[in-house]
Amino acid sequence: MSETAKKQSFWKQYRFPLILIISIIIGCIVGIIMGKDAVILKPLGTIFMNLLFVVVVPLVLISVTSAIANFGDMKKLGRLIATMFIVFIITSIIASVFMLVVCVIFPPAQGMDVQLEAPGEINEFNTADQVVAALTVDDFSKLLSKENLLPLIIFSILLGVAINMVGEKGKKVASALDTLTEVMMKLVQVVMYTAPVGLLAFFAALIGDFGPNLFGSYFRCVLVYHVALIIYGGIFLTFYAYVGAGKLGVSRFWKYSVTPILTAFGTQSSVASLPANLEAAEKIGIPKRVRDVVLLIGASAHTEAACLSGILKIAFLFGILGLPFNSIGTFGSALLVAILSGVVMCGIPGGGLIGEMLIVSLYGFPLEVFPLIVTIGWLIDPAATVLAVIGDTTCAMIIARFTEGKNWLIDHVKGLKKTSSEEVVEKAEG
User: Fold this and answer.
1) Which of 272, 331, 376, 429 has the maximum number of C-beta atoms within 10 A of its C-beta?
2) Which domains does the chain have, with CATH numbers?
3) Higher pLDDT, 338 or 216
């Protein structure tokens, strides 16, 4: 292949991610130059976010229902869902233990000097009530909202199972849902055309608003988190991709994760990043029935990234309050609270507030510390969202390994090559 052809191939493959990177860089520069005035650009970013959120609700309803309805073998579906939750739990525990080690070696609150401001009165937080509220709603109309994504997913799964149980009559509905899923993915592509402008505006406002804080009292905590996240992502996500599909899985995972990473970093929402992540998973080669179930449920139920940030916030508060963070009992409670806070979070911007309330409530910390971890949450949210999004993808790869067979990706690539060869022959004959 000539150099010109290679350049054209590279540009064709990475054109959109490169455009997004350029948009983000320009947005950062604009934010630095304009400072707080960059907030005037935020409406453009908000329009992009709103478009994504409008697409996400019907996408989840149609895609999850379609995936379950078209699954066929209900026993295999049960195995997939069981495997999914086992993988989610294991990766969340590994993430928690990793961040515990990091926070013991590099205490995030060391050298912190900040004046506390007592927040307004916070209502009592009931964990059981919050979990119930996160999983169920009392009216169908409430399902059609991004704030109630988990109840929507549960409803979609049940609806898909019901369609499957109908048998032959249900196949027409399942087929229609499959077609609707394709339509929704095309709509996603249309919406993503607005991403360059939306991300530019979002980053300009973000840097203009929070830029100075990164070099203030929170710098050590934010630095510890981002370095830990890069190490965790580089080592553990690569390992998970390898477990899922070997060296080929690793190369294809990182190759096609650029757009989801940039979308997640810009939108700070695992739900808003779903369209880009589903498209990337398709390019990687993750089977449709696996990616449609795992990624859509994982956007709200996978707590890996939430555990990393939860442990950091807990260790930070222990340091600020002068409490010892060095015993097995403390580590165990921190791990449990981090997982619980992740479970009750919603997959939307600001959803971390719920988890932060839970941390303060369960430990009985003074309310004055609440604004501290809220600020930390805002500063680390973009990077945390990145891990949440691509972490779902590696989980989907592992799940495909155990439900579709160890050669699932090799078979997919062979199928692509065969299809490509047949198209070449058809063109030659034509």
Assistant:
1) 272
2) 24-429 (1.10.3860.10)
3) 338
